[in-house]
Design goal:
386 residues, alpha/beta, Aspartate Aminotransferase, domain 2, 7-stranded mixed sheet, 13 helices, globular
């Protein structure tokens, strides 16, 4: 077990540890010997492998998921004064990407008994300026995507799937991200596969893929390879200003290696999630996550809800676990809690998110987690049941 990064000697059990194998280190070290360390062969291989895994037609690797969201919005023509609907319970990247297009994020409540966008509130917030929806496959579970797609179809809206938690999440045998116009993935260190920092946009539209690929590299009309295959590599056009959202060769190579064992990674996560599930049944006040759709879940997080029927509040349980050397956390504060985004929510319409936020707690979950680690978590929770 690695030492606590924050140099807290009391922490014996972390919330997460990245799984970096010998093969990961070997491919990264080998890539460092290349003459080209960006927009090279590893990037192409990683994109091709991700296409094959998700059965998408196009995959464009980017510097992070936030960049992927931003590029997706730009490629779909989202502009100033447009509105894009997002759930209140999501990471700030969704709102930030919308604001980067000078558009307006519209924050909508989630359902009362799950973490998904409320369809009633979604419909209520659609206006003439609404152009897109960003549904979130939160914690690794498929969201209510069919209902969202129906609303989008009825209102001629684009769909950008937030798949940051969902590498390995399927819906009716289709990988998430292939259901809407684009899907955006994160390879942050806590995710099911990691490139340290990194992301991917997938789509079945060549037009969208070409636009995303061009915008990720300053809007250049030619790729690096095509420029150096021509007579004068410095001659290219910029038809629209773009961004430096590239994923380098080193991180792309790490992604290749990690993706090769995604089945094993997700199987280990599933086993750990089901171990929690079997040991934490029937504790009054503890609501366990939905594990019914086990064939479609990627088990990114195991998030319980600590309700009033439990002896402790969520915050009290968090502190008790920390005192026992166990680190847990919450994903996330609702969007309306942040100063920068509060004005984009109708505070009277986000009651479900406010309630659920005060209950959720993500237990430690990662591929190499031990039964000893989990048993310590389970023992603390059980010791406080009424």
């Amino acid at each position: 077990m690695k030492k606590d990064f924050f140099k807290d000697s009391t922490i014996k059990f972390p919330a997460y540890e990245p799984w970096i194998s010998k093969d990961d280190k070997l491919i990264v070290n080998k890539t460092l010997g290349q003459s080209m360390l960006t927009l090279g062969p590893q990037l192409e291989k990683f994109e091709a492998a991700f296409c094959k895994y998700t059965k998408s037609k196009y995959a464009i690797a980017v510097s992070n998921c936030t960049a992927g969201l931003h590029l997706s919005l730009k490629a779909l023509g989202i502009k100033e004064h447009d509105e894009v609907i997002i759930p209140d319970l999501t990471f700030v990247a969704d709102a930030s990407a919308i604001l980067s297009c000078n558009a307006k994020p519209v924050i909508v409540d989630i359902n009362e008994n799950d973490f998904f966008l409320s369809i009633t509130n979604l419909k209520k917030n659609i206006t003439k300026r609404t152009k897109a929806i960003i549904p979130v496959h939160i914690y690794g579970q498929v969201c209510n995507i069919d209902e969202v797609l129906d609303v989008a179809l009825d209102n001629n809206l684009k769909i950008i799937e937030d798949c940051a938690h969902a590498v390995g999440t399927f819906h009716n045998s289709k990988h998430v991200g292939t259901l809407g116009n684009t899907g955006c993935f994160s390879f942050y260190p806590t995710k099911n596969i990691t490139t340290a920092e990194g992301g991917m946009v997938i789509t079945n539209s060549k037009k969208i893929a070409d636009k995303v690929r061009q915008l990720r590299s300053h809007g250049m009309s030619k790729s690096l390879k095509s420029r150096y295959s021509s007579e004068y590599p410095w001659i290219f056009d910029i038809t629209e200003p773009g961004y430096n959202y590239r994923l380098d060769e080193i991180r792309a190579s790490l992604g290749i290696s990690q993706l090769k064992r995604i089945k094993k990674i997700n199987e280990l996560r599933k086993n750990a999630a089901f171990y929690y599930h079997s040991k934490l049944q029937n504790i009054s006040g503890i609501v366990l996550p939905d594990m019914v759709n086990n064939k479609t879940h990627s088990y990114h997080l195991y998030t319980i809800r600590v309700t009033k029927l439990f002896k402790l509040s969520r915050n009290q349980l968090f502190k008790k676990l920390k005192q026992a050397g166990i680190r847990t956390t919450v994903y996330w504060m609702p969007m309306h809690k942040y100063t920068a985004f509060r004005k984009f929510a109708n505070l009277s319409d986000v009651k479900n998110t406010s309630k659920i936020y005060n209950e959720i707690l993500a237990l430690p979950l990662f591929p190499s987690i031990t039964k000893k680690h989990q048993d310590n978590v389970i023992k603390i929770i059980k010791s406080f049941q009424k």
